[in-house]
Design goal:
With 340 residues, this protein is of the alpha+beta class. It is built from eleven helices and eleven strands. It starts with a helix and ends in a 7-residue tail after the last helix. It comes from Cherax quadricarinatus (Australian red claw crayfish).
Length: 340
Amino acid sequence: FVYSLWPTAAPHISRFFLLIEEGFSCLKSTGRKMNNSSEGQLDKICESLSQAELVAMIELQLSEVDMLQSMFPDPRELVVEDPSVLCDLRDFAEGRTLLLPPHLDLIINLNVGKGRLSMSANLPHHYPAVQPNIFVRSQTLNRDAQHRLNQELLGYLKMLQQGDLCIGPAVTWLQEKGETFFDDHPEEVTKSDANTMETKVIKFARLWIYSHHIYSKVKRKDILDLSREFDLTGFCLPGKPGIICVEGLSRNTEDWWHKVRSWNWQKILCKKLEENELKAEEDISKYRRFSVFEELGSENNIRVKSGGFHVDMGDVFKYLENHESGYVFKEYFGISGRAT
């Protein structure tokens, strides 16, 4: 498989398989431990892993990146979102630091026949003992086809043997199958009509979501991108805790939530769901409380403190009040809000 996929990666292959052999036992035991746990327990389990287990997994990640760089020498094809993380991971694997670096985030841009795909991958520290977060987008693929592509790719990755590396197989699958998701006459990709209900959609929905924390720049960017992609309005308040509100056509909110909650979170849940029945061709803008989807901060008159991840709760309550939503403050925090 590796020789057929990466003919230019030969210098890395021997080391790659040596690392797999050395790390196999600890990856298998760790993988079983991970797969028997809920997503909310993953962070705690990761903290309990031995140094040797973490080093084995991170070395495999680095070896896979080396082969990907051989396969995609053009920096526009393989993008490491924060190159400093790659350096930090190498330092950790080689014992120059005991400080565990952030997760590695990759983007791989592929030309597949008539179309172009962009695959984003977030590699947790415990990958490949658990699967990475992978999502594929295309500017020339309609939303239904894009959703189907991601579901089929996820199904394929779940069939791989526990502990296997996933990025290479995902690339191969996209190169072989990706073109089939583009029609001969591709549907123009546009935002859903924000003012007119699609005939088959009967509800407007608003989700109020609570997360233990939202720190990751990658997750925050993906939340913004997905919300705009699904024509949702609302906000994301990063920090601890993290708060998200999304509103729009019910089907769009369901697809958005299905994707977001599949990411690795310490804890994330929908605290409240609000729905309104829609009549045929009814203008949905009257149900929206937010004009755009945005990340909240000082530009919204919310004072940020303690390194940027703690905010003034009085300002948050005032923001909610200004958007006819002050009542949800108690849903999140168990007390009535008060503006400062």
